[in-house]
Design brief:
Elements: H1 4-19, E1 21-22, H2 32-38, E2 49-50, E3 53-54, H3 62-77, E4 81-83, H4 89-100, E5 106-110, H5 126-130, E6 132-136, E7 138-140, E8 145-146, H6 148-158, E9 162-166, H7 176-186, E10 189-193, H8 198-202, E11 216-220, E12 231-235, H9 253-265, H10 271-284, H11 287-309, E13 313-314, E14 323-327, H12 328-332, H13 336-345, E15 348-349, E16 351-353, E17 367-371, H14 373-378, H15 385-397, H16 402-417
Helix pairs in contact: 2-10, 3-10, 4-9, 6-7, 11-15
The structure holds pyridoxal-5'-phosphate.
Length: about 425
């Protein structure tokens, strides 16, 4: 039976994706193989537990596919352990907090308006209700440099049990060595949330926090890593039996994490997504993926240069990774939500975003955030970035001119439609 209503919506969404340019830096396009795994009969199976240690029968294939995903993830990130069951990035972070901390304990994370994610202690979230968050942030908005001296001072005073390196809207590399030296001085577990940059780390173009003494990394699998919507937790330490309790030591983090994910936080793993994660990790280990990651960075640099030439004020004046944050309010005199809507109208999708210490509220913030992972997957190169910047600039300056916006929208549609979706072949 065909559910015509949903089929039509799927077709409409595919058309939208095909005819527009996706600039949201946390989005990407998966391959046909990944789509196939996500749409597979693995979705029918209950597999509570871990490979070889399940609470249901019939695990002859699920055990193999989950172990494959685990082994591939470990190899990709040089981790001792991988838990590939978290349904998404937010519960992955929650699982690590609960594996190591008690309510009331202190976590040091990035100032939210400087780039930190909601799960890094935004007031109102479950973790902010349970744990005490203290902050580090950038010292210089022109370069984006983190204030490591102040960070150390605050860490010495507040004694966080976890120091969390990671961001959703920060366009520069972190100095993981400095995080590690502060963390070691105060005896904190070093955790990196690499949700945004996991693909770029796997592809070898950005540093891997595990090489600098970090003990835990969480990541989504659907951003630069270009896999299915989901997450995983990677850790260093001794891999134990998740059915048995262990002492709370750094060495036992893998087991503490496994026991917190299941049965602590989740029930049955989504085996169709785990199968798709296994495919994605294989794809990310291929030489073509390294080429892709290099291109993501080249395109981001070219796009940020082209935008600055057009008069966009970029936070930190550029980017070292796949994303940039533009201060629309000071560049154009209106807020980021107006920019988001105007660019939606011409088929360029990005998101409104706060800028550091934004004077405007989060729903109508000063900035927008954009990036190159998805357009690079579509096949755009450095030579196309000036055109993207030109469309953005023209549309924002003509935001009340329907005729001009309509003209640009047609150009974007014709251009975007000439680049296939990876799931086409
Ligand atoms: C750094 C970071 N951590 C965690 C998450 C949460 O991931 P999810 O939306 O899959 O829960 C995000 C999502 O954007 C993120 O950017």
């Amino acid at each position: 039976m065909d559910d015509k209503t949903v089929s039509k919506l799927i077709a409409a969404e595919e058309k939208r994706q095909r005819e527009g340019l996706e600039l949201i830096p946390s989005e990407n396009y998966v391959s046909r193989e990944i789509l196939k795994a996500m749409g597979s009969v693995f979705t029918n199976k209950y597999s509570e537990g871990y490979p070889g240690k399940r609470y249901y029968g019939g695990q002859v294939n699920t055990d193999v596919v989950e172990q494959l995903a685990i082994d591939r993830a470990k190899a990709l990130f040089k981790a001792d352990h991988a838990n590939v069951q978290p349904h998404s990035g937010a519960p992955a972070n929650e699982a690590v907090y609960h594996a190591w901390l008690e309510p009331g304990d202190t976590i040091m994370g990035m100032e939210l308006s400087h780039g930190g994610h909601l799960t890094h202690g935004r007031p109102g979230t479950i973790s902010a209700k349970l744990f005490n968050f203290v902050r580090y942030g950038i010292k210089d908005i022109e370069t984006g440099e983190i204030d490591y001296d102040l960070m150390r001072e605050i860490a010495l005073k507040t004694k966080p049990k976890v120091i969390l390196a990671g961001f959703s809207s920060y366009p520069r590399e972190l100095d993981y060595g400095k995080f590690a030296s502060i963390g070691n001085e105060v005896g904190a577990v070093l955790m990196a949330d690499i949700a945004h940059i996991a693909g770029l780390i796997a592809g070898g173009v950005l540093a891997n926090p595990l090489d600098f003494g970090f003990q835990v990394m969480t990541t989504t699998t659907h951003k630069t890593l270009r896999g299915p919507r989901g997450a995983m937790i990677l850790s260093k330490g001794k891999v134990g039996n998740p059915l048995q309790g262990v002492d709370k030591t750094v060495e036992n983090l893998p087991t503490l994490i496994d026991r917190t994910v299941f049965p602590g936080l989740q029930g049955g793993p989504h085996m169709h997504i785990i199968a798709a994660k296994a495919v994605a990790f294989h794809e990310a280990s291929q030489p073509e993926f390294k080429v892709y990651c290099k291109q993501v960075l080249k395109n981001a640099k070219a796009l940020s240069d082209a935008l600055m030439k057009k008069g966009f004020k970029l936070i930190t004046n550029g980017t070292d990774n796949h994303m940039m944050v533009a201060d629309i309010q000071s560049s154009f005199g209106f807020d980021g939500s107006i920019a988001e809507k105007t660019l939606d109208r011409i088929g360029l999708t990005l998101n409104k975003n706060v800028i550091p210490d934004d004077p405007l509220p989060p729903y109508k913030p000063s900035g927008v955030r954009l990036g190159t992972p998805a357009i690079t997957t579509r096949g755009l190169g450095v030579e196309h970035m000036a055109q993207v910047a030109e469309w953005m600039n023209k549309a924002l300056r003509a935001r009340n001119d329907e005729t001009e916006l309509g003209k640009i929208a047609k150009q974007v549609k014709a251009f975007a439609s000439s680049f296939p979706l990876p799931s086409d072949s």
